[in-house]
């Protein structure tokens, strides 16, 4: 399955099968309370020459490149937004609850991030700035994506309000083992329901965020556990104070985030009822693009339908609905199907074929990409 999904994603970025022929930017402090933590700050440097979004998208298309139905979000409306979940981290690979723990990308996660960047590059989307969390699985995904779209120059803003939800006492535990101990329905409530948080994290927990120096000035703000409702409350502050004003200024934004924090923002954007949000899951490293109206409400997809992968969304998966559907089905089995003993992230029979395919799609990483994805290591 994984190879099939990879081939579909690769085709979505325009690669053939190998078997076939002006608004002041905001300076964001990482710390502070709501209602005064965000301040305007004029970026230094000269303003680049302005082109229309249509000209930009057209100019980025190479001769002979396949014309996609979804060429760019930068048309039909000045209000454009794209969500992207980070690539595979070490604890995604190991099927563990992560939360605020700072787990790095795996080699496969680097490939996932680069393929996501290829999708965005082929779409013709041009971003004005990126917003992400304080966790390096998102930060490195952002760096890799910007290299692929050749937009390393745009501002990247990081903030704790875009961190993953805190999974409390579950952090570090294996998800499938937790299902065996507590049952599928209980774990699903903890992971996906609106207002049922996991058990609280004790103060001496091995992975308590208070041990992390990046939170040393905001220890009193660290939650012991979070439901999606509580995650939505903190992400809404960032949306209202930062994202919404930038969108209304005509900026095209990329938000690189974590599954539950992105779910909280998408829930609000789409108006998904709290009783239905339990059924919304998001794949890693597949961009979800939105066109918005002047009220920052989603404009219908070109086909006028909701996405087939989740059945909830008016945004468009740049990897295609079917590929996303297959990824989500694999992720469901990885957590809830206790009859499957192997780790589908590591023991999939097609894993090496998938990795070889991804390498073929994106090419061997150059010295710059290797240096940025593996800081501290010398590029080969």
Automatic annotation (TrEMBL):
InterPro entries: His_Pase_superF_clade-1, His_PPase_superfam, Phosphogly_mut1
Region annotation Disordered: where it falls in the sequence: 16-73
Enzyme class: isomerase
A Pfam family that the UniProt record links to this protein: His_Phos_1
A Gene Ontology biological process term: glycolytic process
Keywords noted in UniProt: Glycolysis, Isomerase
GO MF annotation list: phosphoglycerate mutase activity
Site (Transition state stabilizer): 258
Sites where the protein binds substrate: 85-92, 137, 164-167, 175, 191-192
Polar residues: compositionally biased ranges: 39-73
Active site: 86, 164
EC code: 5.4.2.11
Stated family: Belongs to the phosphoglycerate mutase family. BPG-dependent PGAM subfamily.
Protein known as: phosphoglycerate mutase (2,3-diphosphoglycerate-dependent)
Lineage of origin: Eukaryota, Sar, Stramenopiles, Ochrophyta, Bacillariophyta
